[in-house]
Amino acid sequence: MKLTDRQKQAVESKSRGILVSASAGSGKTTAMVQRIIELIKNGANIGDMLIITFTKAAAADMRDKISSAVIDLCAADDKFAGQMRALPSAKIGTIDSWCSWLVKNYFYAVDADADYELIGEGEQNELFETAADSLIDEYVDKSAFFAEFYEDCLTNRRDGVFKRIVRDIIDYAETRVSPEEWLTTCCSEYKSGEAERYVMQAYKEREDAVFSALHEIALRATEMGYDKLAHCCSDAESAYYAGDDMPRMVLGRKAEYAEINADFAPIRKQLKDLIAYKKKIEGFTDMDETREKAKTLAAFALNVYNVLQKEKKTRGLASYADYEHLALKVLRSESVGKEAASAYKYVFVDEYQDVNALQDALVAEVSRDANLFIIGDVKQSIYAFRSSEPDIFLEKYNNPAAYGIDEVIHFNENFRSDRKIIDYCNRVFGGVMSREFGGIEYGETALVYAKNGGEGKAQVRLLNACEKQDDAPRDKVYDITADDFKENTDDKEMAYYIAEGIADILAVPNGNGRRVSEGDIAVLYRSETGVVRELYDILKDAGINVFLRRKAYFSAAWEIKALENFIKALACGLDETALAGYLLSPLCGLGEAELYRAAKSGRGEEFADKLQEYAKTHQDATAEKLTAAFETLSRYGETARDADVTELISGIVAEKHYAEKILASERGATGVETLEKYMDYLASLKNAATVSDYVRYLDSNSGQFESAAPSGSLQIMTVHMSKGLQFPYVFLIDCDKKFNMTDVYSRCTCDKKYGLCIKTGKKDSAGALRSNFMAEAAALRLEKRSKEEESRILYVALTRAEKALYCYSFNNWKSCPPQQAGSFLDWLMPASKECVCVSSPNKVFEEEEIAPAENCPVDEQLVSAIIRQMNYVYPHTSAAIKATVTSLAGEDSVSAVTVSDGDIQLMEKGERLHKAMEKIDFFSEIDGSANQQVLSALEGDERSKIITAHGRVGQLLRSFGGKIYREQDFVYNLPDGSLVQGRIDLMAVNGDKALLVDYKLSSAANIEKDRYVRQINLYADAVEDILKKTVSDMYLYSFISGKAKKVERKSVL
Prior knowledge:
Strand order of the largest sheet: 13-16-12-17-20-11-21
Number of helices: 38
Helix content: 40-55%
Number of strands: 27
Mean pLDDT: 84
Structural class: alpha/beta
């Protein structure tokens, strides 16, 4: 392969410290391998090199490429044969594997165990819980600050929230060079005043931006003679500086005002939000008290950490973080540090944008006397959830001399994507990434087209969301006690729209005389939604070779669940669920009807007794299967408790020819592959080796695995899973999905600059948890970092495409500065030259074939089924009358209605409040992160109404008990044959009793009107008739008064 000038510079440079900033598709791995080979050609030894990356897959790929290149060297000149022999022991792998090797070789120098075993996540959680529980009472007794914070975190007297906070603090501390030091000094910034300056500067910038936009609107209004809007702008500004609420605004309705009114609407909302934020700052809590609580919390976390470390050492266990800390101690050891580091003359680190502070320190120590070559791309740093810190790479990039970097080289040439994809990426990120947002000026690293391919395609495809309908009933009445989600019409429409695009790609030649195959296509998404599931089902049903790539739990695969049930049945003979699962599996071969008949016919108190009695007294096939099943349990059970679980399961798999049975099932080769991975997983469980240990382990753990995609399949996967991959055709979907900012509202944040920042338990007048300058500064920084990470995730997604890139979304975006974006679409649209918007998809499945290859026969029965589904006809057209509960509860006749702007605003407000009540968690504190996220989407008075409702309605639900259901639709036939459909806002079911709550945007007096009472009684009639539950309590809740009025039960029928 011919190298570019910059690649050649990186390969041949004599500098001792080199940093390569390599954009997507620029051949960075190729350059690193070529530099290694060039060094070997010039006399270096592979054994003197440390080559590190951050995933096992990347490490395996790197080893394969280096091995292949060394083999080629040997073939050309046998003087390199020694390099070939040194390859097996060469240090090419992940940073974790190298740290583990280093500790096991120098354990004696750092008081470590040579035989440390990697601790499992379940056992780590268990040890943490034990350590925390052992200290909580002591701290509650000795510290009033701790006791108050601990009490504030309790939810229904449970301390899970508090423990998650402590666990997060420890996890963050473990990414620092010294966890103990960080936990000791993490509250030192509380007195500096820097946080207050940061918050006030951000507030002033926000204020300036809002009023600049407001003044511009006022000027436009004045110039066009629109005095009403100009006065509104002036009144709003005056109210803000006077500390008043936003005044009521009445705008003009002339057609020529429509555009400027639309431009004014978001500014008005921004001003309302700014007023609320100003009041929030004025209500910040005292910093001295907050600091004392933070110091006490940090001290508690440090004690838990020390107890946890001591217990792990006693048990001979270590986490990946432990190995990294011990490795750093080795490298800094006076006795062996120099020896350990001097083993390497050359240090190579790939994907350096993903390191944390501890890993950066490790690289600095091991490379102090070595040649250092680090390569990465800050634009592809997408692992914040793994504690990666892209600013470490940026610090070296911007100040290389300070870190011993002699040369910075840019790889901008992209060999992956066609021209239009490159151009689109540059337009998008040229407008998004900068030193202020993202830490890097995109122009310095803009992609340069170097593929020598075609023009390609980059297109945004929008779908107008379906109008909200009254959810026409399906063929069956919706069961409001079921857990199933209601079908989302918009999700299905979008899924068909995407499927239409996929069909178009599969139907055309790819330029080589054959059709595009499914394996050429990838569908990427940020996080799983209903669209993902709908799309997978549509493609699967249509015969497409499609694979939804995601991690799964072993226990979710029936072939593994059967083995787990077998183990549980051995260890816990009275576990009826496990016994039934074992008997119904291919290990025994019983059917559900057989098992039911045997259990019903057999005698005995326990389930097992009945089945064994049946086996003894009957002479049929069922009895034979039961006899064989219990004989197997008895035989394996004799030595099961202390037996090695891997050997035991290997035995039952071989005896029952289990792999062959799986292969013959619908799971086929995939099931056998899962079984093989499961056996490897069992062998790795050093602390769950026996049957009894494994059963205890299963109580709190379930191993995960990732199945390999079937050959040639269309893959649906997250953007994170696509990192390092590329596909000719990429469909990025759900681009309007809102960014998840939940962590921003957290009670506790660990910040690199400000340390441990917490919110105390004091509430504001609306009942929300009060913040302070430290917590607010950390939250602002976290929000910015989170959005920067989202921009990098988008960069990774767009740069996976080779020939064509299609971005799918509902038509739901806003024009705003990059840092104010709420979704990918807000960044994509300003740069989009090619955009298609439709109101409904063509639903190509009913018109033409989608096939994986030419001459593939169409399944006519399948196509007919799809057509029937897409041409859905309302099934109740013959009903005598179709009405809603609301209309039946009102007057007999309905006249024409004139709806004013005020009515529309009231309806919109009611819809927002209902939506919030659908999402709010009544059983968690209102200041919990999930509830705070709901509240953040509301305006000031709406927030206070929901906070009040959370308390009032939540009290009713807690008193009543049972399970709750929200916004449940039903269809009900009245005795006269009329059909009624309605929606119950809130229902709780406890045994044979039910409680109903209906929300009203009316005063306490108005909700007592007959029509509201009649309406909720109609709901009760439907519930009692359909569910056969007695409605014992009914309430009308007023958002205006914040009161719940109990309604007397009177049947309307």
